[in-house]
UniProtKB/TrEMBL annotation:
The gene is cmoA. This is Carboxy-S-adenosyl-L-methionine synthase. S-adenosyl-L-methionine binds at Y39, G64, C65, S66, D89, N90, D117, I118, N132, R199. Coiled coil: none annotated. Homodimer.
């Protein structure tokens, strides 16, 4: 059972950038449930999509796997034989805990948990790739090249799931959706201080794109279909089919 997230509950004199360290890994399930609207729905649906799209004798990638929620959801639903999930994260604390979660359940679908930068991972023979709130933490100039590599490594008919926080080009809409997200966090027990300090810590490391930016980039790479399949406030998830 994860601990309650109290990382930003006391005043912090010198606010550093948000990092996925041991402190965050320890409280991550609580943090993500109380911070990301619709997270459980997205994780559940990733499993449903795995049941539909994962083909026999292919690889499945969870890039930026954190504690392995998407990996475990896919593994529970994969029906095809001869598959393997490659779960990748660059946080040592997350990888070690992910391994414990993966090893706690037996399954016909093996999982390899890898500590690495997702930009350095080879994508081959993939029928499904998941970027679940991961791309937004990459430098904007690195996003297109990673997506191109994913597209090249996907088999025809393969699917990419891309969950992200969104920014909106209309200022009124953008501010309203940000405010609704902060209201969501307060309703889940975060104080004004926690909301404010978390926002300050994360704004330099998480730079979200707009939905049109995501769609234009995916279409320019060559994906035949892409659409937002889930959205709650300024968080959502898209699919892109090769």
């Amino acid at each position: 059972m994860s601990l309650k997230d109290t990382i930003f509950s006391a005043p912090i004199d010198k606010m550093g950038d948000f990092t996925f360290d041991e402190k965050v890994a320890e409280v991550f399930p609580d943090m993500i449930q109380r911070s990301v609207p619709g997270y459980s729905n997205i994780i559940s649906a990733i499993g449903m999509l795995a049941e539909r799209y994962v083909k026999p004798n292919t690889l499945v990638y969870d890039l930026g796997c954190s504690l392995g929620a998407a990996t475990l959801s896919m593994r529970r639903h994969i029906q095809s034989e001869g598959c393997q999930i490659i779960a990748v994260d660059n946080s040592h604390a997350m990888v070690e805990r992910c391994k414990l979660h993966v090893n706690a359940y037996r399954s016909d679908t093996p999982v390899e948990v890898v500590e690495a930068d997702i930009r350095d991972v080879d994508i081959t023979n993939a029928s499904m790739v998941v970027l679940n709130f991961t791309l937004q933490f990459l430098a904007p100039e690195d996003r297109l090249s990673l997506l191109k590599k994913i597209y090249a490594g996907l088999r025809p008919g393969g699917i990419l799931i891309l969950s992200e926080k969104y920014t909106f080009e209309d200022d009124t809409s953008n501010e309203l959706l940000i405010d609704l997200h902060h209201t969501f966090k307060r309703a889940n027990g975060y104080s004004e201080l926690e909301v404010s300090q978390k926002r300050s810590a994360i704004e330099n490391v998480m730079r979200p794109d707009s939905i049109p930016t995501h769609k234009e980039r995916l279409q320019s790479i060559g994906f035949s279909s892409c659409e937002v399949w889930f959205q709650c406030f300024n968080f959502g998830s898209m699919f892109a089919v090769k």
